[in-house]
Structures are given as C-alpha cells and as structure tokens.
Design a protein that fits this description.
There is one protein chain. The protein has nine helices and 13 strands. With about 350 residues, the protein is of the alpha/beta class. It has a six-stranded antiparallel sheet, with helices on one face. Helix 1 runs parallel beside helix 2, helix 4 runs parallel beside helix 8 and helix 8 runs parallel beside helix 9. The relative contact order is 0.09. The mean pLDDT is about 90.
Length: about 350
Amino acid sequence: RLGESFDRMYSGKSSKLPDDIDSFVEVCANIVRHYNDYFAEGFAYGIEYFEILGDISAYSDGRERIFEFYRRVASALKLIDNSLKVGGPCFSEQSDLREFLRFCRKTHAPLDFLTLSIFGSDPRDAAEHVREILPVIHNLGFSNVEIIIGAWSFIDKEALGSLSLERIITGAGSEHAEARRALFESMTSVKGAAYALAFMLSLGSLREVSAACFYDAQPSLSPWCSICDRFGNPEKPFYAFRAYGELFRAGRELYSFCEEQPGFAHSGIYSLAAEGIDAKYVLLTSFDGCGTVDLRLDGIPNDAYTADIYMLDGVKNMTLADSVPLSGDKKRLILNISRFGAAMVKIY
C-alpha cells in the first residue's frame, strides 16, 4: 500500500492528503524502485500489486482531490513499469466506487484492480455486495479489472446492539467495554467460524475476486485477532480456515449447490466440493440455517466406499464424528448440523 493505512477497528482518526502531490508521487515511485529495482540499496522482490492511498473513508479531503491523487500516482508507476498492477483506494461504499470508476473512465486513469472492505454480520450481504458492483464495473468498460477484498471480518450486529461500531471501539465507558468484549467473543465463537466459512464459500464462485484478506490474524500485534489467542492457541475460526485450506489444496473444484425448498428464501447452508488425488471432499457450513442437511452425492464413482464426517460446533473442532459406508448409485447422507456450525465429509 502506497499511502497511510487506516484500521477500521481503530476508528476515530482521519487522514489528510499531503499538499505537495509532486513529492508524494516521487516518494511512491522511489518505493517501487527500491523494492523492485535495487534503488537506494534496495531489493528485487518483484512486487506486482500496489494499492494507492488505502481506505478512502479515512480521508477528510474531497473525493475529486483523492481521485486526482490516485491518477497521478498510478500514471507515474505505469511509466516506471507498465506491467505493474495499480489499484485502489479501498472502498466500503458503493456510491464512492461508482464515482471513482466514472472518474477513471473520464480521465483514462490506469486501473488494474479494485479493493473493497467488507465488515458485516450476514455472509449473504457480502456476496451480494460484490455481485451488485460487477454490472457497474462491466458497463463502464472495466471488464478486466480484478477485485480484491482488502479486509473482511465478522461484525455481529447482536453484539453491537444499539451502538455503532465506531462508538464501541472508541468509547471509554463500561457499556462500551462490555460491548467490545461481546463483539470479540462473537468473532472467536463458532458463529464467527461459520461466518468465515460461509463468506469464503459464497465468494468462491465469483471469479472476479482474486483475493480476500481476513481481518485479523496477528495474535501478538492486534487485539482483534480471532484465529488464535495471544499465546497461539486456536480459536474456532482457525478450524474453519484449516478445513477450507484442505479443500483448496485438493486441487480440482467439483460442482456443488444448495437446493432450497419452495417457500424458503434462504436455507442458510453453503457448500463446496473438491477432488484430490486420494480423496474427495464436501465442505458444508450453516449460518443461521436449518439443522438437518440431506447431502446427495450423485456422480461419486463406485470405488468410493467410505465417508468420514468431521464436525465443527460449540464442542467439536472439526473432529471426526462418524465414519459411514457408502453404497448404491445415488449415495446419500443425512447430516445434523447446528444452527451455526460446519461439516467436512471426506470420501475415499
């Protein structure tokens, strides 16, 4: 990131662009040279992506000035190396994003990727947020632009209560302290784990999203790390990420979908299937979903005889709960998943 980093979980501050844009452009150009071209006894890391300025909501400057800053820096970096990918600022509001895209089109500002921040309480909203901006991106002629989720996390609206996120984080009273505790506990709970999995599974089908960075996985640096505690002991979301990683490493994604019953707008069940060398996997998560899942394994070859079922809930940490034999052409499993929980089925 070329610019000041703004941490949403440390609200209450604002940034201001420097008055001398030429000096800012020169500094950014030299940073790129330092990391990629040995400038000033630098390195040759070959960093490809450079986000300019960071979170737009942190700046007190007008949007036009921010956009012009972006254009000047992005154009300068392209003059250094046209293969560099430039993008940013980071957006959380769709109205700002639309305005920025129109500016880039009008001024022919280079744009290789967009960064978004998504802090929410419902994984459906996250995927829908991305789907809503895709037509805007394509209609304005940016069909080749990548989307990077620069920061995403679970913000439980039940933990927020009547307070805003900013008031909870910056407030000094006992009410705010209690709300901060409730917010963090929800992040580290099985509900937070279910949100993380549902978020990843719902965005997995959107090929325009090339990366999504979870907030936060720095136990020794941040009070908001929900992967593990300050001593490195795993919290519930750790097991969600590990299960997702197992399917990711399997290699080949398989077709899967959740069939909803008529009259129900949302089942609350998310799924992903993958095939590895020695086994096939199905990952299911329930976020405020139904308790019984009818898993139909159509198309599984006859040489798959066994299904190991691993569960994540308030007690289990994606541990082996059952191992069942498979038979017949249309193999079928009935799984009982908690309202907020997950199951991974390993088939071999």
